[in-house]
Amino acid sequence: MSSSRAMSSIEVSSAGFWPGNGGAGEPMFYAYCYPTPENFARRTAVPEEARWDVTLGEFLLPYESVRTADDPEVVLLAFLQSTYEAAAITGAWDRAALECEPGVPGRPRPMGSPDPGPAAPSPRSSTTGSTP
């Protein structure tokens, strides 16, 4: 199965880092979505150094802009959040079903109910009282 066929039933927002070749010319953070909704490229990404690249079909943010920022984490997170929101808004995604509050670094989020109850018996255990 081709990747485009496998992805045809899902929507993806993707972001990453480019070391500086393949069309960007310098190190860049990038963000795109698939399938690309109409008007996605017209959305504004932040910070102001972020731009839409028509050739690559992606939002780009120069690494240098992040590296030299007063708070690089804040700048990069703003870029990632703004490009995700561009995809979610123009793609009319069900954001309530997809999103959660940001977590705390180093602390895993709880999954499921706080008390899942007793574990199911192991197939090797026996409750009949017999011994092997």
Description:
The protein contains four helices and four strands, in the order αββββααα. By secondary structure, it is an alpha+beta fold. It has one domain (3-96). The protein has a four-stranded antiparallel beta sheet with strand order 1-2-4-3.
Could you give the distance between the termini? 48 Å
Task: Give the percentage of residues in beta strands.
Answer: 15-25%
What is the radius of gyration? 22 Å
Low-confidence runs (pLDDT<50, min 5 residues)? 1-5, 122-132
Q: Give the overall silhouette.
A: globular
User: How many runs of DSSP E, i.e. beta strands?
Assistant: 4
Structural class: alpha+beta
Q: How many individual helices?
A: 4
Domain count: the total is 1
Give a quick account of the main beta sheet: strands, pairing sense, barrel closure: 4 strands, antiparallel
Mean pLDDT: 81
Please outline what is shown here.
With 132 residues, the protein is an alpha+beta fold. It contains four helices and four strands.
What key attributes describe this structure?
4 helices, 17% strand, alpha+beta, 4 strands, 132 residues
Indicate the topology.
Blueprint: H1 3-7, E1 12-18, E2 28-34, E3 51-53, E4 58-62, H2 63-67, H3 72-90, H4 95-98
Antiparallel strand pairs: 1-2, 2-4, 3-4
